[in-house]
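User: Sequence recovery, please. Input:
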């Protein structure tokens, strides 16, 4: 299959859904809505919502009713990027080829824009009018999955350990904790949410969970490599920032070539986890390869 064509089609669908989830920039108070939409529509790849859709498709589900949930994953991801870029955290000037939210709107509005996106996600997830095809029991399971992945046992915890590890010697277990929580937790949750929406059986859910864990780790290893080898005009953010900030990365511990080998090994494991699925899971297989081979 042509993964680029698949990603393009799904991105259009997700972007249309996102436009309906966040009020127009002119809505009062306009400064925060403008900042929210500025970051949300800055050109992201929509990997997380597309993973959710692809996971549901792998089980044979129709996914129109999944779009509010998939869109919520992107709202949370964008919030995390806004906060990650703040001076108190990574202090980045560019994101997706544009000035970061706090550079464009000021630090206070950027913080509130991130807060707005996070809370909007849970407004959407708890709106039964938008999610008529999801039973209350499944919806609670989905909300728990996403909230756990976004909190102290997921992204927040990973970010804390990442910041506290700057300039220090850390072991492989700590590095993998950072990667599997700061980045991997929401990717894993995205896959599991698609599976839960599609009423996956226990065996299917276990397999997709394993796939999500490995794809999340591969995504961050690829990011670590791109921070060294990428071009700013392509990846849309400063190159070499991890080294300047003393962050520990896979290339920092293993070197570039071993990191590349490890990324391929992890992706191979993710694809292997899908052995029990038919060709409907091909988008997931190709997404895994895309994640490790991407240039931005």
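Assistant: Recovered sequence (296 residues):
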């Amino acid at each position: 299959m042509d993964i680029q064509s698949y990603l393009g089609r799904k991105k259009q669908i997700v972007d249309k859904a996102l436009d309906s989830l966040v009020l127009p920039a002119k809505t009062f108070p306009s400064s925060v809505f403008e900042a929210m939409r500025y970051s949300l529509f800055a050109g992201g790849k929509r990997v997380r919502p597309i993973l959710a859709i692809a996971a549901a498709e792998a089980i044979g589900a129709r996914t129109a009713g999944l779009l509010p949930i998939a869109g919520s994953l992107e709202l949370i991801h964008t919030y995390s990027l806004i906060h990650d870029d703040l001076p108190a955290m990574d202090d980045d000037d560019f994101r997706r080829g544009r000035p970061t939210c706090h550079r464009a709107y000021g630090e206070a509005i950027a913080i509130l824009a991130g807060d707005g996106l996070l809370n909007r996600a849970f407004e959407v997830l708890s709106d039964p009018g938008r999610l008529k095809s999801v039973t209350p029991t499944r919806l609670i399971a989905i909300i728990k999955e996403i909230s756990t992945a976004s909190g102290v046992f997921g992204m927040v915890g990973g970010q804390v350990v990442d910041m506290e590890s700057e300039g220090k010697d850390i072991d492989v277990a700590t590095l993998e904790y950072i990667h599997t929580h700061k980045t991997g937790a929401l990717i894993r949750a995205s896959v599991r949410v698609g599976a839960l929406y599609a009423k996956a059986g226990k065996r299917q859910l276990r397999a997709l969970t394993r796939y999500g864990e490995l794809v999340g780790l591969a995504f961050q290893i690829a990011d670590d490599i791109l921070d060294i080898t990428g071009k700013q005009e392509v990846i849309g953010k400063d190159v070499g920032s991890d080294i300047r900030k003393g962050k520990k990365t896979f290339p920092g511990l293993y070197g570039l070539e071993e990191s590349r080998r490890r990324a391929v090994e992890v992706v191979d494991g993710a694809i292997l986890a899908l052995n029990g699925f038919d060709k409907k899971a091909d988008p997931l297989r190709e997404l895994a390869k895309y994640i490790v081979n991407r240039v931005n």
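The chain has one domain: 3-293.
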